[in-house]
Design brief:
single chain, 5 strands
Length: about 130
């Protein structure tokens, strides 16, 4: 039997990194989003695509990218937990974003219409 092993830590950590480029498409003014998720340092998921919505600011483009990444983070965590073969997985998924306005908006509970949609993700600036 063979196994794919990421890192040698006792507890598995999922980290996500997200970014956006504001209105990169000159034809339709749409921004580009991207994110990558690492499990104990090894890449397990990534995406780069044009955003569905036209953002009015860099902050909005970054927030849209972070929102898409947060949805993926929830899916990844549920998937890994559902496998039932992982003994220890950390509670939070660290999601790194390089835009302070988007981070502030994500942490503001009033910016979320439905309280059930607020995701339990630790959002930070900078890279780790």
């Amino acid at each position: 039997m063979y196994f794919l092993v990421y890192g040698g830590a006792e507890e598995l950590r999922i980290k996500g990194y997200t970014d956006a480029s504001f209105q990169t498409d000159k034809d339709d003014s749409r921004s580009q989003l991207g994110f990558v998720f690492c499990l104990n340092g090894g890449v397990v998921s990534w995406k780069s695509s044009k955003q569905d919505t036209v953002a009015d600011s860099t902050t909005e483009a970054e927030y849209i990218a972070a929102s898409e990444a947060a949805k993926k983070a929830v899916w990844i965590k549920k998937f890994l937990t559902g496998l039932g073969v992982i003994p220890n997985i950390s509670d939070d998924v660290d999601l790194y974003c390089d835009n302070n306005g988007a981070i502030a908006q994500a942490k503001e509970p009033r910016s979320h219409q439905d309280p059930n949609t607020f995701l339990d993700a630790s959002i930070s600036s900078g890279r780790s």
